[in-house]
## 1
Amino acid sequence: MMLGAVMTMGAANISSPNGEIKLHVDVNPQGQPYYNLSYKGKPVISDSKLGLAAQEAKFIDRFTILSTDTASFNETWHPVWGEYSEIVNHYNQLTVNMKNVDGLLMNICFRVFDDGMGFRYEFPIQDKANYLAVENEVTEFNFPGNNTMWVIPGDYDTDEYLFTETRISDVTEALKKYNGVHSESQREKALESTVQTPLLAKSDDGLYISLHEAALIGYPAMQLDVDTATYGLKSHLTPDRLGVRGYLQLPFNTPWRTIIVSDDARDILASQLILNLNEPSKIEDTSWIKPQKFIGVWWEMFTGRQKTWAYSDDYRAKPGVTDYTKLTPNGRHPANTENVKKYIDFAAENGFNGVLVEGWNEGWEDWASYRKNRQFLFDKPYPDFDLPYLREYAKEKGVKLIMHHETAANAQDYERQIDRAFQFMKDNNYDAVKTGYVGAIIPRSEHHTSQGMVDHAQFVIEKAAEYEIMVDSHEAPRPTGLIRTYPNWLAQESARGGEFESMGGNPPSHTAILPFTRLKGGPMDYTPGLFQTDLSYYNEGKTDKAMTTLARQLALYLTIPSPMQMAADLPENYMRFPDAFQFIKDVPIEWRDSKYLEAEPAKYITVARLDKNSDDWYVGGITDENPREAEIDFAFLPQGEKFKATIYADAPDAHWDTNPQAYSITTKTVTSKTKLKQKIAPGGGFAIRLEPMK
Amino acid sequence: MMLGAVMTMGAANISSPNGEIKLHVDVNPQGQPYYNLSYKGKPVISDSKLGLAAQEAKFIDRFTILSTDTASFNETWHPVWGEYSEIVNHYNQLTVNMKNVDGLLMNICFRVFDDGMGFRYEFPIQDKANYLAVENEVTEFNFPGNNTMWVIPGDYDTDEYLFTETRISDVTEALKKYNGVHSESQREKALESTVQTPLLAKSDDGLYISLHEAALIGYPAMQLDVDTATYGLKSHLTPDRLGVRGYLQLPFNTPWRTIIVSDDARDILASQLILNLNEPSKIEDTSWIKPQKFIGVWWEMFTGRQKTWAYSDDYRAKPGVTDYTKLTPNGRHPANTENVKKYIDFAAENGFNGVLVEGWNEGWEDWASYRKNRQFLFDKPYPDFDLPYLREYAKEKGVKLIMHHETAANAQDYERQIDRAFQFMKDNNYDAVKTGYVGAIIPRSEHHTSQGMVDHAQFVIEKAAEYEIMVDSHEAPRPTGLIRTYPNWLAQESARGGEFESMGGNPPSHTAILPFTRLKGGPMDYTPGLFQTDLSYYNEGKTDKAMTTLARQLALYLTIPSPMQMAADLPENYMRFPDAFQFIKDVPIEWRDSKYLEAEPAKYITVARLDKNSDDWYVGGITDENPREAEIDFAFLPQGEKFKATIYADAPDAHWDTNPQAYSITTKTVTSKTKLKQKIAPGGGFAIRLEPMK
């Protein structure tokens, strides 16, 4: 041994409950902890070091293993909402307790499931360390080969990117295409070989591997530095703007680092590993938490019709200072009483729970964000938004208004206003809020994904729970399964969503990779349901074209499930296609069970889901830019029962680019023995409703 | 002219109402605005440039004067409390409206009073600029000669320094003595020729000149860079940690830059110019605002008796996480029920309004401050502090407990907790709070005096007003007369206070310069009233000796007036000197009128004050380390009336070092014709109560 003082106690090994995943943990001759992982005998992660460096103490090397603890756990729990009504949480646990020659104590806890593994650092109370100003975490995920990966570029402030498919060896080159489009912080830091999680990898021997984290609390988000020569990935924690990655007081447990693995892509989609690694709900009475399907005053601002969030064009208006009733209205402000009333009517007529209204409050006249100390007031409606009237009108119609809190990334000012803002919501009969953090963060020491903003997100969700408010957060740190702990956190954006169809478009592969990546953290407010996909329709100079057929938009309600699900298009467009719109009206937003039938990353997904509140099944499928024939095996249906299938499909000549609105609606009877070949157009999709026949 | 495009419209001149102060404003050939100021024909400030540079626009040069506006103003207003029951606000105003060749508009508003001048930049709404990220303000205060100055070193985070007397030419050398004692930020930035305000200067031709600012709102604090060669001082705004001095949206008015001037040092003390430049009270009903004299569980922690704010010695305790009832008490924690009960008894028996208790709440076990994200909870009493019992006990005794909120400089977390904290206060019958910001600031982008913390202070004082809470803030941005606008802001620390008598001592000159400097911004919670000045008395190894006689401590109640005034010593010490203690019991804390009888900076002050609520006068006087004979002319008394004077004076052999507790109490009858020569010991003082004789 190199260092005489270090003596290893011996390696530790543990397997998944079904024995197919094997983990090996040890310390090397330098006393550096490491692990490796295999699946059905194939290497998933080769020897990869573990540790954390803080200003005060280096938990890196010269460790010996003091002891190991093992345990098994098996429970079935019931989420408040989601893709499943019950989730099995079954794992074998190994905790490796270590001490180094400086007397520093570090325990690493591994949980091995049948679908992967999570591990975290647990720093116990100890004499040699109390506070840690984190310099870096040295967690490695070394791949044994030059895997293919689907990644977005490293960035401390945004994740609204298209994914890139690349070999590990080509990551640096592949990320160059983002030059000029990524956020200021990414440019600044030149993260040229850094990628974000959740990422998906595929090995040449057929393994699908998802890397992410679970239960991100009190710690910065993890990105990954890629070594293109060795195929190694290494933790890269988001620093604050002063360069520190986080401030910890012991005892402290880091978030879980997660590896989901299978030789079947469908298992990646079905995995509940990340939810399982989160703590159970902190909210005892969850009866007030209600999934919701909603429409909103929102897409109008993207269509090219020159509609604005702002009431006036006077950029010098200052919320709380300016008398807004004296401003000249710009006449292009859809968040006005008459228009919102129409949305409420439409929601009531078509069974939507809620109406989101963006641009209802003071502060949109200019967009200074980082350069000012207050941009928005959350209790000051614009003069043309008659809230007392609309509150009563919505109540009468049985519809809820959904609040919008765009903070312009001024988290500090939002915290100052939050009690008043939430009380204002309750006083006006709102119980859900869409939050936004567009711009550079205030406090100016923070990034969107640094520890301070992770703490802020927790502060907001807990404060919301106090007020019994549900949250749909945009531009917040990407989700890590915290919806289990805070089920009032219905959805997040945290990816390039449907709005980009008006800003360059989302290639069909985008929505075929999101479920393998971003969605592993939790539901996304993707805003599906665009029927008018060619924006030149509005005849206002906009030439963007959503890269989707109309039928595919219906499928997204199944492939991107969310308990806070929008029908994003304008009511007038739904009224043009009432038969297709019927599917959006019918489709549930919480599920008793889900079955992934077909899947390949960025290529195709076919999924079947059972309504939580009826015996109806739904099947949805999408492809990428290529045509495809889905093969649907209805074996998931209860044996011996007949179902009426209503099939919303691309017409034979449909094509996202040339003929997006060509769809067919047919019915057929199916049973558990039926096998159906369903054609999908380029950029297309299909959606099926299955109703038990009496 | 150098720049052909620039044409000056002509100089502007204005005088004070009595004509003795003359201001001249013009733009120079480069189009740079400048001013100069004279007093009785003597130059106070020679030509000094004006302007502000932002990232977006430079309001520096190539200006022409578009127009000038003049106005006069004369009002008498009545502060809620203070040294005077009425204050005359009488000035002539000149506003110089300028435009530069880039089209930038800047107005500078000057107000000239009989006791000095204030000016501010007023940036109107304009087309060429909306937001300003301030790079620097170029305001100059150029002295015509090598004045003597009393200064403390530039520092973004603390002002708790002893003053240094120095010629301008020697500032750099004089500030070297602070090496090693100033705060981290001062070391970092090497502010080797920068000083803080309020500062006092004295010219060789006998002028006393105070420089400071008024109404510091939404802007960083101003320090001053000294040019030792030219005798010029120049604005140095505190930046945030990212280097920006402030974010403004137009229209915006800066704080006032203030110059108080006289050939009589007493006028500097009497000047109300800074209050006059602040806005009237924003609080309409001020009936709940009550000046208070208080004692507190506080000095016990300084005496050397090893008493602690912390309940336990377990430095690993985490507020809100640790079960404090399971910690081992350290037995040295004075904020316990029994002890506080004794303080309540003592307060009730001796007519004090309040009892401050420090160390009552969770979080003192360790002091991590900047390294952790939550240090204190403001609604969690320690297990040995029975608040429900003490609340009722205090109520019964007619005494108010005074809250203590030490934030460990985590302003962001304080904002998160503040509503809960203030509600907790009201629920427990507290109506005043002492706040503290010890350590480096969180948000980590801020300094104690950067714009963000100025905004925080405003947020706290306005929030406190909502709850009808009075504030005594420590380690906040130094005061600028905002007590006029927020009369619930009873006092601040913002200087080296009495606590330093246990940490190196305050030389007698310190309390003789504070009223000329720090106190111009507003009252100080100096914590006078130390009777046991030799800390070796406690026989616990502490050798510090307060540099004061006992009689001087009584005088401080008059020379450092405050509506939130402490009797800082332990009750047991007051009981040892009940006759001297009588003065502390008697002395008022708000005044109908004040007359400064004698004054020389850092040397001596004699002041007479008339009780606001009776016809009693009080006279107090102090000297520096030299003995002195004050000459008190009682001409301020109403003619023809007799007063019984109770004189608390140094005994003939008293000396701060060798015999501090030697005092005499004598009585004598005085009238407006009396002249009294009163001896003062080295480091001594005297206090006189004058009661009308019936």
## 2
Amino acid sequence: MSTAAPAQSTLARERDRVSQCLRESVIPFWMNHSLDRELGGYFNCLDRDGSVYDTKKHIWLQGRQVWMLSKLHNADPSAKDAGAFRDAATLGADFLRNRARDGQRVFFSLTREGKPHFLQRKMFSECFYVMAMAEYARATGDASARAEADELFQSILRYAKDPSLLGRPVYDNGLPATGELAVPMILLNLIEELNGADGNDFEDIAQWCVERIKLHVRHDLKMVMETVPLDGSLLDTPEGRLLNPGHAIEAGWFLMSYARKRGLADLEKMALAMIDWSFETGWDKEEGGIYYFLDRGGYSPLQLEWSMKLWWPHCEAMIAFLMAYDTTGEAAYFEKYLQVADYSFAHFDDPQHGEWFGYLDRHGRVSQRFKGGPYKGCFHVPRALWMCEGLLGGLIAKAS
Amino acid sequence: MSTAAPAQSTLARERDRVSQCLRESVIPFWMNHSLDRELGGYFNCLDRDGSVYDTKKHIWLQGRQVWMLSKLHNADPSAKDAGAFRDAATLGADFLRNRARDGQRVFFSLTREGKPHFLQRKMFSECFYVMAMAEYARATGDASARAEADELFQSILRYAKDPSLLGRPVYDNGLPATGELAVPMILLNLIEELNGADGNDFEDIAQWCVERIKLHVRHDLKMVMETVPLDGSLLDTPEGRLLNPGHAIEAGWFLMSYARKRGLADLEKMALAMIDWSFETGWDKEEGGIYYFLDRGGYSPLQLEWSMKLWWPHCEAMIAFLMAYDTTGEAAYFEKYLQVADYSFAHFDDPQHGEWFGYLDRHGRVSQRFKGGPYKGCFHVPRALWMCEGLLGGLIAKAS
């Protein structure tokens, strides 16, 4: 049974839904509540109503907000809000550049004033710093921001190839060396961000990323592993059996975007498979929503929060399914987009105070009422709504 | 309204319940499934039915199991199982002594063979190693195990006073230096373990612990804070507002045990207050069970698992309320013991395969089916049942 293509009215209704949420609820929430005009940067720990419950500044979110605001500016520099977006991006970019770096490392969190609070033994603060600077340079023409992105990106490549540089001891204990999906997927996304709409640099690194991602994509099991031995085998441990469906779906659309631009049909097919399998495995058939973690062997994941429904896997799935529909024209992908979007607007969206809730229990009840925290800020929701708005606009134009 | 003292028949019924669970379900589970007779140490990652789902060996649990088995031996060295307990303790103690130390540090986890897997920037592996060696030395008369406990305890004291020795950078960022409840409470418990039934050493350190614990006990708020500035103030951040009721109840009975032995009535009163307040705040009045984390200001805790019901706070509360009843003779404490024990036997106990489940969702449904994992092993359940068996036996003897 084939599914009929969505009517123009359906596409328009969806575009209105995401556009309205983005522009009347989500962006105003962050513009009204997060800007620290006194000391710079953004308050990213915001309660349901936008009040600040912690003044610490988490660099993942500072960098991602600079990126998002710059992107909104750059999408239409003549729009009436564009200047406000650029100014708000400057507030964060200046704070990052003055405070967040520790040589070739970037802190995980700072005090409100910008003094060091915590440094992770991971490279993701650095990644979001680079992502911020690359897009901010486009918003302002600030070449030194771009130069900083390029310089720090080289350090990130060193960390990716030798994680011991980040200070976590690596033991020679007879276990195979392993790789995390997060590393090649974020690098591939960073390359896309550094390249912008039409650049074509870093192709050798992109190909390294693609080869690494392929190790995680197990056609034999129809699953995408989070952690794999680099020798192509599988680990039968909780880490080696771990599935993170939202993460795999996000990696899928990163890869689809990369493959589409280059006309790589085989890679596009692999990206679609990653999304298909992960949604099939990850969707909770009883209660709805996408699980946070699963174990491929059916054991209980060690992560206590495994059955919770988090906002960001749903954001990534909305992007992935619309992109898959745009790529293939298969209406079933639009149906899946609707399935995820309907769940999300019914459960995460908070029309009363703006933005989305981030954390639901398995049954879809709000577990954490805050809108921003150490891992949630002005990023996944606005990125997804903004990308879906663009994809839906393109579909409407194509169909008319 | 005063509550009537429990009848002898009630005390006997309770003693039978905990004793039967300990000796017919919990101990057999670990003795049958955890011993790695081939390569030494214990499998501590055990599924519901005792099958091994990960062969890694987590040192917190290796040490705690050596302690528990030695304790069971030492409680009655002429009992028919005593030899088996001592032999099983030796299996773990030898593995620890051959494999787990890295100079004055102790690994967090090892491979099955005992090769290094992970080293935490925390001092708790060292603490459980010391606890194991102190009791194991009593079980075997092995003076070198005791000497090792004493030596490593001195390193732990250095780590407690200067956590930067553990490798986590400490920043001079204008925030007040803070203390964690875990540190003085585990040190106080270690001193009790090193002292044994009638020792009286380390009194200066014990008094340092008591003074530190007092900083966490806020009579003005009737709450016990997890993290406090050392200057006696309060932090208005998620860390500074965090409550962990089970942890505070455990600290309460550690302190009550310390105070009782020394006849310190004021400290005993403070310990009872810690238990009373934390149970009042921590018990979920709608769904039953003790919350894992709360925020004193009513915000959502950052910990995604805050509303889950974990086995160990219930174990600690069973001990604390029986000890409080034994100390004060107030029947209301026995009622609270029953409230927690009834919840626990109804929700955590697994008569089908033995031992208790560890992790329930807010509504009391099993969330993780495994019996052992990186933080759950042969410790909280048998320690609680064994201590409750002893306390109930004492109450029965007193009343007859």
